[in-house]
Design a protein that fits this description.
- It comes from Rivibacter subsaxonicus.
- One of its GO terms (molecular function) is hydrolase activity.
- This is Haloacid dehalogenase-like hydrolase.
- Keywords: Hydrolase, Signal.
- Pfam families: HAD.
- The chain is α/β, with parallel strands linked by helices.
- The chain has a domain of 201 residues: HAD superfamily/HAD-like (Rossmann fold), CATH 3.40.50.1000.
- The chain has 14 helices and seven strands.
- Strands 4-3-2-1-5-6-7 form a seven-stranded mixed β-sheet, sandwiched between helices.
- Helix 12 links the parallel strand 5 and strand 6.
- Helix 3 crosses helix 6.
- The termini are far apart.
């Protein structure tokens, strides 16, 4: 009898142990345990995702033939069209439109300026055709004499209230969810992530750390002239009406060298303006990766490439095909384009 009682106690104890162990396993799975969590959940399974995972594993796994020391793990990303949307017009141009219009009464000489006429007429096609420089030149004049702190606050205020003309969402919500995941994944693997954009550093630095996790010192972009001054007995940096540097096209490798000082091993762009950055990246020794976002999803975002005035993808696309670079299809490779709305 005592033997039967002991046997029953043991069976009940074993059953509780098994159930407890099962519960622990389920809890670990529910919390993302087990080490098998997908680092890129918004990416569809396919050649693009697998190429990224394979490359990152190869350059970060000790003992791998393509292993790269952490100090050399530099990844550069274009911003417009690569990390956030850029249609129907670069978002910084929309900001510039308001700034230039507000300053117009003090600048009657602008009435014959082609860039000013296009801005006032909301002629997006003409603005896109002109490119960054003539519009930046107007903005430089419009906000010269303003301190960097005042300009920083102007940008923050605009982003807090402005909405996309078609999508009706704040611009900082029109970032690409798959790219947010990729940035976080790369950093978890010892990469240092940089923005290298034709947009101005002054426009990007106030918000990119909160949105992308990229600190302001890791932003490479076009730059307005600035000088040190004293205002009311306080040292300030004042904006000047000139452009110091245009970080677009062939300017991107120059900006990378000047500010980063290391050649990237991974670069991600979306247009011909990124071609030289991609070429510069893959020209280095050892494992290298060049990626291009192809905007081919008119239903969820916009579809454009060779004929577009904004984010034209033509020569870079041809080179990607010829050189075997990874071309990411927004339509096929991304399960989700934008993060869920915050309200």
């Amino acid at each position: 009898m005592q033997g039967e009682q002991r046997l029953g106690i043991w069976q009940r104890t074993r059953r509780w142990l098994v159930l407890g162990a099962a519960a622990l396993v389920l809890a670990a799975c529910a919390s993302g345990g087990g080490g098998n969590t997908d680092p890129l959940p918004s990416w569809n399974e396919g050649t693009s995702k697998q190429a990224i995972l394979k490359f990152v594993d190869g350059v970060t796994r000790e003992g791998s033939p393509s292993y790269v020391a952490p100090a050399e793990r530099i990844a550069t990303f274009d911003n417009d069209g690569t990390l956030w949307a850029e249609q129907p017009l670069y978002f910084q141009f929309l900001f510039m439109l308001e700034q230039v219009k507000a300053a117009a009464p003090q600048h009657p000489e602008w009435k014959d300026n082609a860039a000013f006429k296009a801005l006032v007429a909301n002629d997006h096609a003409a603005l896109a055709e002109m490119g960054h420089k003539p519009i930046l030149e107007l903005l430089m004049v419009a906000n010269s004499g303003m301190s960097n702190e005042a300009y920083d606050q102007t940008i923050r205020d605009w982003l807090a209230s402005a909405r996309h003309p078609k999508l009706k969402r704040p611009f900082t919500e029109l970032v690409y969810q798959p790219q947010l995941e990729l940035l976080a994944y790369l950093r978890s693997k010892g990469f240092k992530t940089f923005i290298v954009s034709g947009g101005s550093v002054e426009f990007m630095r106030p918000w990119v750390e909160k949105v992308y996790g990229i600190p302001p010192e890791q932003v490479v972009g076009s730059q307005q002239g600035m000088k040190f001054d004293m205002a009311g007995g306080k040292p300030v940096l004042m904006r000047e009406p000139k452009i110091d540097f245009i970080d677009d096209g062939p300017g991107k490798p120059v900006g990378i060298y000047k500010q980063i000082g290391r050649r990237p091993i991974l670069a991600f762009g979306n247009s011909d303006g990124d071609l030289q950055m991609l070429q510069y990246t893959v020209a280095g020794s050892g494992a290298r990766m060049a990626l291009i976002v192809h905007h081919d999803d008119a239903a969820r975002e916009f579809a454009y490439d060779r004929q577009s005035k904004i984010g034209k993808l033509d020569k870079a696309w041809d080179e990607a095909k010829a050189k075997g670079w990874t071309v990411v299809s927004m339509q096929r490779d991304w399960k989700q384009v934008f993060p869920a709305p915050k309200n």
